[in-house]
Amino acid sequence: MNVTLTLLDTGFCRQLEAISLGGGRFQSIRFHAVAGCMHHPDHGLLLFDTGYAPHFFTAAARFPYSLYAKATPVFTERSQCVKEQLASKGIGPEQVTGIFISHFHADHIAGLHDFPGARLYCFRSAYEEVKGLKGIAAVRRGFLPELMPEDFEERAIFIDDGPKIRLSGEYHPFEEAYDPFADKSLLAVDLSGHAKGQFGLFLRDTQDRDIFLCADAAWSSEAYRKHRPPHPVAHLIKADAASYLRNLRRLHELHRSWPELYILPTHCPEVHELSKGEFAWS
Ligand SMILES: [Zn+2]
Fold first, then answer.
1. Parent domain of 55
2. 215 CA from centroid of ligand 1 (Å)
3. Suppose 6 and one of 37, 44, 50, 135 were both cysteines; which one would form an S-S bond, judging by CB atoms 3.0 to 4.6 Å apart?
4. Which CATH number characterizes residue 255's domain?
5. 281 is a domain residue
6. Residue 144 C-alpha to ligand 1 middle, in angstroms?
7. How far is the C-alpha of 95 from the C-alpha of 118, rounded, in Å?
């Protein structure tokens, strides 16, 4: 079953290029946070992450959470948050039935409060990692607790509690996935490393484009295309450097054996361009 996919730019933070790309410059570049908006024939409107939203600034206002905003200065306008972008198309937040949360870093969940009726799809392993975290321990994991809805657990659907299915050869080296809607429309694969329990979503859209939303398993398309892992400094802020490198290698292999597949990392400059072009609202 095919879904439509629109990419929405929700603003950016500044970070050194050298941190995200091996051999990159020691120069501050923009890291856009691009969210996905999908329409599924049976499940309606769904999001893949929410990117930034004004809630980020309230959640990061007080120490020690302010350290997060200092480390990666964030630039976003109210009109850029997913809720406002949907509103500009005449879509109310209640029409969003579900949000796939790739992982719990603040640049992916800042808009959760805007969709109080949505089911929240994530990996249990990712949620357990941040559940109840506060203060410095939270900041160290890129997590701002105020961004979490109070009724999170009542609305949560833990993807990794479900059964796995075997993937066909074209997905190699990925061999198994979760199938949350049991219709093969969205296939979730574990991409732990950048964060524990981070996942990516395979889908085929209504224009027959094969797409892999890979969140932060790579920070740029250059990184998986040429297999350029980030500067070792970046490993300090990764949950599990060995898993990260293993999954980046997998993305590289996947790209080589399936070049037509759109592999879309959240913060890649090319993905930001796609949000204004091929994957803009049609
Ligand atoms: Zn991110």
1. 4-276
2. 7
3. 37
4. 3.60.15.10
5. no
6. 13
7. 8
pLDDT, position 29? 82
CA of 184 to the centre of ligand 1 (A): 26
Any bridge partners for residue 32, and if so which?
Answer: 12
Does residue 212 form part of some domain? yes
Overall number of domains in the chain? 1
Encode pLDDT of 125-181 as tens digits: 999 999 999 999 999 889 999 999 999 999 999 999 999 999 999 999 999 999 999
Which residue intervals of the chain are DSSP H helices? 17-20, 55-59, 66-71, 82-87, 106-109, 124-130, 135-140, 152-155, 221-225, 232-235, 241-257, 269-276
33 CA to centre of ligand 1 in angstroms: 7
Which two tokens mark 221? 């398309």
Domain assignment of residue 239, yes or no: yes
The rounded distance, in Å, linking the Cα atoms of 2 and 221 is 24
